[in-house]
Amino acid sequence: MNDRRETTMLSRVADSLYWMSRYLERAEHTARLIDVDLQLRLDHSPDAGSERWLGLLQALQVPAPEDGSLDAETLTHLLTLDRTNPSSIISCVAAARENLRQVREQCSSDMWEQLNRLFLQVKSTASSEAGLLDSYQFFRAVQDGAHLFQGVTDSTMSHGEGWHYIQLGRFVERTDAVARLIGAHFNRSPHPLDQAVESEEYLEWVALLKSCAAFQAYCKAHTAELRPLRVAEFLLLNPGFPHSVRFSVDRIHAALSAISELTERKAGQPVRIAGRLRATLSFSQIDEIMASGANAFVDSIRWQCSQAHTAIHQIYFDYSVESALVA
Amino acid sequence: MTMPEPAPALSRPPFRHYQFDSAYDEMFEAPGIPRPHYRALFQTLLDLPPEELRKSQQAADLSFLHQGITFTVYGNSEGTERVFPNDLLPRIIPHAEWGKIERGLAQRIAALNLFLEDIYHSGKILADGVVPKELVYSCRHFRREMRGLNIPRGIYVSICGTDLVRLPDGSFAVLEDNLRVPSGVSYMLANRKVLKKVFPTLFRDYGVCPVDHYAQALLATLRALSPPSSSARHEPTVVLLTPGVFNSAYFEHTFLAQQMGIELVEGRDLLVHDNLVYMRTTAGLRRVDVIYRRVDDDFLDPLCFQRDSSLGVPGLFNAYRAGNVGLANAIGTGVADDKAVYAYVPQIIRYYLAEDPILANVPTYMLTDQSQRNYVLEHLDQLVVKAVGESGGYGMLIGPQSTAEQREDFRRRIQAEPRNYIAQPTLSLSRAPCFLEGEAQARHVDLRPYILYGENMTLVPGGLTRVALRRGSLVVNSSQGGGSKDTWVLRA
């Protein structure tokens, strides 16, 4: 009897936990990206501004404002506190909270309270007169809030099926975001792969690493001498760093295997896709990848990731009644 | 009226501005003289610096906000989620008074269940002319689909929250029976949790009956409704059916599901195949045996009731008819809490149980009767008029606080549809001290205890004391600016 109870999870609930986690990861990623970007901007001449903004908008897949205005205040608002932009931080946190609210009996009350508190904090920033005057504090708070939520989740929720959907959401989102960032960066900055980067480009490469929360970890592994090849290897193939693509894909595979076992569904499709992706990342050599272009490689990863997403959806969330009755 | 000289204790904070009127005061038997069971609380309040209380209130408010203990207000687009105001000062009920309430409610629910079984089967009470036929058959909540249907244990109302008021003479009377989907029990549990933190010593010294076993008792009640065929198969699967996140009581739905450890489902999570109910899980379809539904009859099954409902489950009623699923409460219970049928409850109790009612009714004017209607129309400014099928404080006229325009509106409505309204004298609800604006102020309160009826009848000692937070207001509903406070039923 008890074994059976462990495995009961409504499809709608699984779907909400998955999306809650994706939205929160997206909010954290956006906050980190803007935070890094604003700091980098301090070292640049003011006229380099608009191009950087376009790059940032592209990395976050947010369309540029129609009136073409690219001033810092408008754009920061668009990306952080603008509720009409579905990818803004406030929209993502609100969507994460709304998803969790719909399944709040499934999570621990500590988790709910933490996410609710983060939401109230973001909301009060949005409604306060000061707004984003202290933007550093704000981005820090969003990242801290998301980290805290993950910690609370890991230590107060059973690591059962629901927890695996949360893991799944986080790492699907992360794989996609980090892969996109790497692709765009290597596209923009052609540089001899195995030489230390020039001093005027140094900050850009630091920013890439910092956007993946990876600067310190990279320095520990390879010293502060930044070589594009090593940066690519670190961000794509490092098995131990939590924001690398390989690490994220390993987690996706682990979560899907666990879910498949817990639900006793003979549904190989998502596990198969994740397994193949995992093998690609485990056995690829960075020089081979770079020889055929970083862009092509990350595109293929993102494509397979979206295939896995679709398969998860079809098998666990939105299956047809007929197929289920036969089983 | 004349105000007696305030006793010395009343000249001190937080009671400096405490006022009395003709209503029964829960705390004081005379100005400055607390009733015996309130003495300890009174002393504590005098000894506490008001600043302390204010801090506790803030901490409690914040804890409600962070836990997201909210309700939704309809017809208000901005920030529809609102925190349910909690008042810090407990309402205390002595053991003996509670005993009478308990017996009275058990009697009432037993009789109302027999009434429902009767009107959906042979209708003896109607044939004997005790309750007029036309009253029952004209009720909007009468479901002819339920005629002749035998339901698990013959229990129609398994979960009930009856509204009691205390009249100026100190006796309790029943104001309304809520036999469809009564809400509020989660606030009872949440208030208790907060008060235990705010007044730990006082709470312990008072010897308060615990209420925390409510969730377990509710689960046992629901399990008792599982169809015989399924309980032989395995432990019954119980789910709570919610209309969804936009429902005003959504917090409560999640709370109860979590406390009971059952799945919280929406209509789209369930499906009916071959008259069996299933829920859609990640591991495939799973049989459901009992549904605690927090969705009104009308929206439960689009094939049978309201056709455009997307909250319900197509085919659910057929599964129910086939005896493959238990529902709490049963369909069609609303006929017994119709406010016009309410007037007959004393007769209903006498008819089925051959006992006198333990708890009185509030006098009620039937507007279908011409002489009563005339009287009411002449005295609209003194009476309370209620629509018979409404709840939650909607569709109400409070005569003494109404405008001429509102009275004219109700006059027209009554004349158009007399069956749709009843009138009652404006009751002077009892008042209890509440901690508002940094001091104790008297506010009108009612009491909603929760009754469970499965294998046994269970009354958790306590309930939700609802408070009309606006000065002078008589409406305690949360949708109309009400709040609530913890209710302490004493062990001895």
Can you describe this structure?
The complex is a heterodimer of chains A (327) and B (492). Chain A is mainly α and 327 residues long. Chain A has 2 domains: 11-157, no CATH class; 159-327, no CATH class. Chain A is built from 16 helices and no strands. The longest helix of chain A is centred in the first third of the chain and has 31 residues, at 11-41. The radius of gyration of chain A is 20 Å and the shape is globular. With 492 residues, chain B is of the alpha+beta class. Chain B has 3 domains: 8-94 and 186-209 and 449-489, no CATH class; 98-163 and 211-353, Rossmann fold, CATH 3.40.50.11290; 363-425, 2-Layer Sandwich (Dna Ligase, domain 1), CATH 3.30.1490.270. Chain B has 15 helices and 25 strands. In chain B, strands 15-7-6-22-23 form a 5-stranded mixed β-sheet. Chain B has a 4-stranded parallel β-sheet with strand order 9-8-13-14, with helices on one face. Chain B has a 4-stranded antiparallel β-sheet with strand order 16-19-17-18, with helices on one face. In chain B, helix 3 crosses helix 13 (345-353). The longest helix of chain B has 25 residues, at 95-119. The mean pLDDT of chain B is 90. Classes of the chains: A mainly alpha (327), B alpha+beta (492). The interface between A and B is medium-sized, with 34 and 29 residues.
